[in-house]
């Protein structure tokens, strides 16, 4: 029988909305304990190689530091009794080691060394998963951008129809932002994936005369970098991770929300894909609600807000402050799991995106030619001057909206304008394909930038 759950990301009913099985495995409690034990075992090997502890001790520790060999009831009881997060685990290993060789486990480091190094390893795995999701999003968006590079649609500003853009340009804008998020992960990784093994106050004194050799060897074994100094009370790298996730979820929520908005009944241009068993409403059977998009925005808002927790954990005191890094235990895991979920959901949406081309074309004509106000103004500016032309076109536009006229009709009826432009000239001006600006070139540029930068994407899985 499944254990009762409290957090929504672990809910057996709603984890498909809030949680990611792949990411949850990274932060699984048992896996975390084993990761701590693995770091201790690797440290013992390093210290044996350097002649710091007996080889026999390192071998025994590596043999017995397996969670399945330990008395978990003992660990739980000791956690409650001691209030210490690591000592019960170490004592459990000591109990199963023969010849008293368990005395050599955790020989020199402090608790936070093990737990922070473990957290870095968790975040490395988490970053790989998030990067994989972002790269998949980009791969889904770029073909759509290319396919619709010159397909005109309404560009909207302040929730109103503005000027024509292309659907491909919209997709390209999303893809460009996703690519920037991928590059942020690469840049962040240079600072984040470093070891922590500097002891109680950061001097490495507990590791003895071979402290640097020990830390450097352990870092190499774990494939982490050696920092210039300890960072027990410096939480900036973890805060950066959470802020980068906040930015990523800002991107994901923007895309999800845009699809959500464009699925409105009166717009009807983009829709998330529907399953065969989809139900939009318990009462209104006709509803086609953008449920996945809506939930994605909600999930992303949690991650965005968690970024502030990362910043708060930076406010630590002196050389060590448990209050700071205990916050990370909550927010790092939650943000990672929810970001992975948001990307999984977004990729599901984009991979089956329902594009209503007929509605996109029809919406271009909703303002009956008014989308060409700027183009007409610049055409007339050559004859009337820019400010005079703007005033005249503005008057015709207001009259067209008030009296329900087509913009072309209002222009030709205006005595300030009619003598300077013919019906045929207006027909020529009012071709949507003539007013998409550099949309096609921008799409091409986005594709080329993505291709060039993707050559170093392998850094994220190294």
TrEMBL record:
CDD domains: pCLME. GO terms for molecular function: (S)-2-(5-amino-1-(5-phospho-D-ribosyl)imidazole-4-carboxamido) succinate lyase (fumarate-forming) activity; N6-(1,2-dicarboxyethyl)AMP AMP-lyase (fumarate-forming) activity. InterPro entries: AdenyloSucc_lyase_C, Fumarase/histidase_N, Fumarate_lyase_CS, Fumarate_lyase_fam, Fumarate_lyase_N, L-Aspartase-like. It comes from the Bacteria. The keyword Magnesium does not apply. GO terms for biological process: 'de novo' AMP biosynthetic process. This is Adenylosuccinate lyase. It comes from Desulfovibrio litoralis DSM 11393.
């Amino acid at each position: 029988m499944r254990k009762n759950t409290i957090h929504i990301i672990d809910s057996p009913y709603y984890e498909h909305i809030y949680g990611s099985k792949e990411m949850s495995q990274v932060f699984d409690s048992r896996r975390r304990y084993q990761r701590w034990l693995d770091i201790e075992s690797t440290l013992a090997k390093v210290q044996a190689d350097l002649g710091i502890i007996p080889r026999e001790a390192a071998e025994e520790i590596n043999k017995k530091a397996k969670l399945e060999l330990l008395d978990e009831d003992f660990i739980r009881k000791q956690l409650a009794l001691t209030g210490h997060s690591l000592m019960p685990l170490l004592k459990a290993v000591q109990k199963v080691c023969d010849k008293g060789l368990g005395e050599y486990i955790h020989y020199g480091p402090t608790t936070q060394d093990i737990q922070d190094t473990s957290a870095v390893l968790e975040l490395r795995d988490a970053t790989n998963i998030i990067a994989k999701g972002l790269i998949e999003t980009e791969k889904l968006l770029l073909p759509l951008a290319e396919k619709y590079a010159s397909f005109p649609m309404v560009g909207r500003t302040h929730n109103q129809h503005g000027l024509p853009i292309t659907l491909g340009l919209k997709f390209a804008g999303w893809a460009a932002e996703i690519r920037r998020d991928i590059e942020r992960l690469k840049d962040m990784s240079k600072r984040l994936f470093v070891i922590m093994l500097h002891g109680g106050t950061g001097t490495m004194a507990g590791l003895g005369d071979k402290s640097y050799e020990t830390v450097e060897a352990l870092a190499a074994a774990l494939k982490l970098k050696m920092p210039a100094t300890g960072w027990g009370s410096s939480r900036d790298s973890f805060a950066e991770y959470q802020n980068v996730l906040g930015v990523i979820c800002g991107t994901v929520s923007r895309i999800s929300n845009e699809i959500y908005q464009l699925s409105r009944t009166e717009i009807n241009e983009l829709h998330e894909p529907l399953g065969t068993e989809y139900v939009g409403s318990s009462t209104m059977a006709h509803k086609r609600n953008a449920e996945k998009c809506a939930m994605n925005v909600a999930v992303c808002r949690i991650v965005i807000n968690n970024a502030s927790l990362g910043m708060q954990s930076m406010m630590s005191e002196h050389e060590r402050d448990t209050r700071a890094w205990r916050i990370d235990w909550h927010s790092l895991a939650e943000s990672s799991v929810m970001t992975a979920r948001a990307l999984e959901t977004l990729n599901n949406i984009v991979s089956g995106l329902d594009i209503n081309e007929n509605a996109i074309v029809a919406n271009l004509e909703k303002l009956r030619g008014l989308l060409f106000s700027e183009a007409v103004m610049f055409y007339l500016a050559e004859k009337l001057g820019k400010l005079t032309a703007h005033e005249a076109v503005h008057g015709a536009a207001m009259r067209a909206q008030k009296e329900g006229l087509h913009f072309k009709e209002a222009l030709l009826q205006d005595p300030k304008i009619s003598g300077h432009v013919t019906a045929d000239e207006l027909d020529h001006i009012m071709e949507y394909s003539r007013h998409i600006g550099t949309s096609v070139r921008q799409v091409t540029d986005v594709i080329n930038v993505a291709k060039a930068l993707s050559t170093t994407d392998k850094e994220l899985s190294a």
